[in-house]
Amino acid sequence: MLFYKTYKHSSSWEWVVFIHGAGGSSAVWHKQIRDFRKDFNLLLIDLRGHGKSAESIRNIWKEEYTFPAVTKDIIEVLDHLKIPPAHFMGVSLGTILARQLAEMEPHRVSSLVMAGAITRLNITSRVLVYLGNAFKSVVPYMWLYSLFAWIIMPRRHHAESRNLFIREAQRLCQKEFIRWFKMTKDINPVLRYFKEKDLAIPTLYIMGEEDIMFLEPVKKIVKEHKLSLLKIVKACGHVVNVEQAEKFNQLSLEFLRNLNQPHQNSFVH
């Protein structure tokens, strides 16, 4: 089973489940724990091959790496802990997994909070994926990962989130990186399907205004999905929850608290 960590609340029955991105770990959520644990039970998971899950004997997964297979790892933890329907929070590629889980088992998902959401690959990101697939077996993976991190998070004030992802990616081995990178071939078909199908689950997208690769597609999907809301954070790049943690926490908690209010629909749309 994946490595996970829980923070139990003394009286709340509500859970927030945090899903990190590729090459990261649950450490990317360290600035959320203090604020969110005041109101919710928290579950933080390290995806297969990442963080402390990389230390597992079962790290040598035999089956092919696909979005449904990796999502089943998360569901296994939810079943083990008997987690009731919860709020799911994803960052970067973790937003695809959160949406995949909502697709596979919608009864488990009360709401979605998507930070730096990936809803479509633009020309730049498609070129990056193509180059990565072409060179993934011959170039040291940290060269590729560092290059991608710099392209996605190029500005000086993106340094903290960029360095965090690069540092956490160093826990991966070359084979594990290749397994994950092979999943990129499935991204566009998966995202196209997600765009066409509205699950009608309350969803908050929180995007940095400097997230040049992923912001514009999110604007389009929010117009088409009726229970979706977009908040754009100024002077912020891709990893909103690290770069602008205070603002991210404020927006997320406001969204989650409003879900329990009678006027929730006016907030969401």
How would you describe this structure in keywords?
single chain, 269 residues, alpha/beta, 7-stranded mixed sheet, disordered C terminus
Protein model, in words:
Helix content is 44%, strand content 14%. It has helices at residues 33-36, 67-81, 93-104, 123-135, 141-152, 159-169, 174-182, 187-196, 215-224, 240-243, 245-258, 264-268, and strands at 4-7, 15-19, 41-45, 86-91, 109-115, 203-208, 228-233. Strands 1-3-2-4-5-6-7 form a seven-stranded mixed beta sheet, sandwiched between helices. Helix 3 (93-104) links the parallel strand 4 (86-91) and strand 5. Helix 2 packs across helix 3 and helix 5 packs antiparallel against helix 6 (159-169). It starts with a strand and ends with a helix. 41% of the residues are buried.
